[in-house]
Every structure is written in structure tokens, then in C-alpha cells.
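Hey, I was hoping to borrow your eyes for a little while. I'm sending you its amino acid sequence along with the C-alpha cells. Take your time with it, there's no hurry, and the full record follows here.
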Amino acid sequence: LEEMINTVPPSELAKVHIDFFQRLARCVSSQHFQVAERSLYYFNNEVVVKAIQEFSPDVYPLLFNALSRNLRVHWNRNINALLLSALKTMMELNQVMFDQCSQRLKAEMAQSKTKQQQRDQRWKALEAVASKNPASAAVPIPRVTTPTLPLARDLMEDTVFDMKALTLEQPDPRSKNARMRRKSFLPQDQDVQQALMAHTPHGLNLSANGSD
């Protein structure tokens, strides 16, 4: 796909730019670190960056939401750095569109939080009415909780990602070495490493005399 983008005339790219960036937004939202990593490298491509700037009214709402939401929940540190770098690139390309998308996302999350609170209040009102029924003493009222996705809960708590995070010193994922690397570095857990070092494989824990 990247080779095709590099060779297709700009007039042809204009015909499919919405479909292309919709697919790119889905890929950068992936929890699979290799899928997200390869798609985020598209922000190093001059043709793609130029298209983002040229078609910003259509592209920014798609990419901004995907990048900012995945930044909240992705487990891989290298992907988080790439997400920050992509957001910073978008902010530098078009500050006005970036601010508009940020405010729109913030309003959507506030509205979602309000709806959740209203839903909880209605359930509490129903439980209060049901508790007045004499039969409720013999039949316990089930506690109904509205399921909330971790993504939505995380976004509600912080309303919108911290803009200051884009100015923090981050390793530049667009460097030459980063582009040539095919796999991400997984986060290192000291507890896991110590447990692996202390582990004795099955069959090697034999007595000194070699008895079974």
C-alpha cells in the first residue's frame, strides 16, 4: 500500500483519500503492536503527510480520534511514543484543525459522561421504587450496573489527553534507526525477569546422586 501511495498521481489519491485514511485510522487503533507500529510509520511518508495537510478537513477528525483514544489504552511503550509523535506532527501541520478536533472530542466525552450519569440515576430511581414493594423482602432486587468499556471510562476520567504530553522529551521514532527496525521493543518487567532467572526447568531439579 505504501508503495502504491508513493507512485499514484495526486489526482488519483484525492479520489480515495477518505477510504485510505479510514483504513489507516483503523490500523493505528489496533492493539496489535506490529499493526499499529507499521501504520504509524506512514506519518514519516512525505506523500501521506502532504495528503494529511491537503485534506485536513476530512482527515483530521478520523486520525485525531484514533490516535488520541489509542494513546490512552495501548500497552506498548514504543507505540505510545509513535502515537505522541504522530499527534505532534498533526499539531504542527494544522494547529487550527488540531484544536477543533480536540475540543470536539472533549465535548463528545463530556456528553457521554452526562448520559452515563443520567442512566445511573434512572436505575437508582427504579431500585428505590422496587424496594417499596413488599415482595422485595423475599425476592432480593438484583443490582444492575451499566457496563462501561475501559476505553470509555479512561477517556471520561481525563476528558482529553494532556496537550503538555506532546511537548515532553520523547525519543524520536522517526529517526533512521527507528524506520529500519521491524519489531518494537517490549516493555521490560523486572519482576518477570527475576522470576525467569529463579525458575528451574522441569526435569533438571534432580538430587546430587542422580537418583530418580
Observations:
- Residues 95-131 form the longest helix (37 residues).
